[in-house]
Amino acid sequence: MNSLKHRATTVCLIFLLFEASCYTEFEITVPRDTLTGFYGEALILPCTFPVDRSWDLKSTVITWQRGLDVVHSFYYSQDQLDRQNRHYVNRTSLFVQEMARGNASLRLDKVTPQDTGMFTCSVSTNTGSQKKTFGVKIAAFYSEPRLQFSMLTDGVNLLVTSDGGYPSPTLQWLMGTSDITDQTQTRLMQDMETGLFNVSSWMNFTKVTNSSLTFILHNKPLGQDIRRDIQLCSGEAEITVPRDTITGFYAEFEITVPKDPLTGFYGSQDQLDRQNRHYVNRTSLFIQEMARGNASLRLDKVTPQDAGVYTCSVSTNTGSQKKSFGVKIAAFYSEPRLQFSMLTDGVNLLMTSDGGYPSPTLQWLMGNSDITNQTQTYIMQDTQTGLFNVSSLISLPKVTKRFLTFILLNNPAGQEIRKDIQLSSAEFEITVPKDPLTGFYGEALILPCTFPVDSSWDLKSTVITWQRGLDVVHSFYYSQDQLDRQNRHYVNRTSLFIQEMARGNASLRLDKVTPQDAGVYTCSVSTNTGSQKRSFGVKIAAFYSEPRLQFSMLTDGVNLQVTSDGGYPSPTLQWLMENSDITNQTQTHINQDTETGLYVVSSFISLTEVTNSSLTFILHNKPLGQDIRRDIQLYSV
């Protein structure tokens, strides 16, 4: 074997950077109007900045503040939260994977009234800096009002309560068309922990006559108007009272007398040994009011089985008498729910409402024309509660621009529900990316999907489903996430932008993406105006690390090995000597990490004779457009 002469080989890595730039004014963009967030939900605070090819993450500084409080900071390519105000701990995040596209928006989770204020977005990059401020207000819907009716010695008291809302509402009372708000008293209390308001409004009547009252609650920031009618009747008629304080439905009741005594009172106390078991623990008298001649009966938790004629018998030391009167039971039907489904030759509209009594009268109008005879109606009675569930279906052979009205009448309760449905001839079309979407390993990926909305859009009738093949990624219906059928691969990694649905946003956020998330995703959307599903591809990519050069002497030459790792997918490698491709003289090993799915690539070449020459190593990661080119200069000494 010939021994090599004393020679030394010097290896130099030469890095050449090419930049191009042009001057433009650095201008960030934030909302011009005040942004409204929904209590307890996540709120996206938009902020974008200009980027060009010279943009560099390492030189990017993003700071969000509310007044002097630091909400979120980002620099040195990562979050910097040591100065973050403790009010925002674990509630803020930036869209790091979107920064290269100029996205400095902030996601603020679980917003509360304490988050109201002026927020400032400050952005500094290698091309400029600016900060801008905009307002944020938080709002919460008030609950369904609850009516409490109580007898006074000289009249009646009506109390309406609603809670869990923000900000403070505007209340109004009407008698007929006359405003009587100044005759009422209102108490407003704020929960010290949540910041939400509880409101109570009441009024007293010294004399009950046949009259119609209207209670109105207005929550301006959300455009929430709650209007509840209350019918007062003189004589034997009952006022409208809640059937159940939990459901918030108002009902008017008529009860019947059974053969057995409903309740008995003598010997200065209740005597219930002969009470019919149907009424056990549901009846009481106003003993403290008897001295004023009050023998009224309170009957709790009334049901349709309580309907009939009741007899009140009174005997005192001055005389005795009994009288009977009829009372009926009624329960308000729930807010109708519209289900819209496309047929091959038309469209189906299904309207459902439940929990009402007695059986209602239904009507459908198209414009001013009655089309009820073109519909099918199904009424079912719950054997346990006695309440009715009603479904009404109409099939239209062709969708054109039409105006429909659904009417439900519950005469005993004085309930009339009218729902307008606007049909458009425009095709229901959802929008997803045309080209495959690329996500960055370990980051969050937004899968865009939008759908058309109009003034008739209803969250309760909206169904959104995301799938990858047959696997359920995320489901949303009945106004909330439904994740019992979610594939376990996606558990705790998916979320929808619920506060954006009213603007047609059905996009999915998928956190901590990995190569296993690659595939074809389908977004399915169904609303009260149409339904459609569309698919698009998702691929995951990861940048390869800076190549590492290992140089070793052989007995008959020199060995060069270049290694790079943490990338995806498998790269394309090329070696050049001067301008000649010598890739076929190299050996390459590519290994995939079984846990992360990322690749480690090693490529080496052995040279038996070292002369002054220039080698070039090229690694190409096509999905990310990543080209790593490293020059290696060999010298013979």
From TrEMBL:
Transmembrane segments: none
Main location: membrane
GO MF annotations, alphabetized: signaling receptor binding
Subcellular location: Membrane
Domain Ig-like: 40-137, 145-328, 442-539
Keywords, in A-Z order: Disulfide bond, Glycoprotein, Immunoglobulin domain, Membrane, Signal
BP GO annotations: regulation of cytokine production; regulation of leukocyte cell-cell adhesion; regulation of T cell activation; T cell receptor signaling pathway
Lineage: superkingdom: Eukaryota
Pfam families xrefs: C2-set_3 (PF22705), V-set (PF07686)
GO cellular component: external side of plasma membrane
Signal peptide: 1-24
PANTHER family: BUTYROPHILIN (PTHR24100), CD276 ANTIGEN (PTHR24100:SF145)
Protein name: CD276 antigen-like protein
Species, as recorded: Labeo rohita
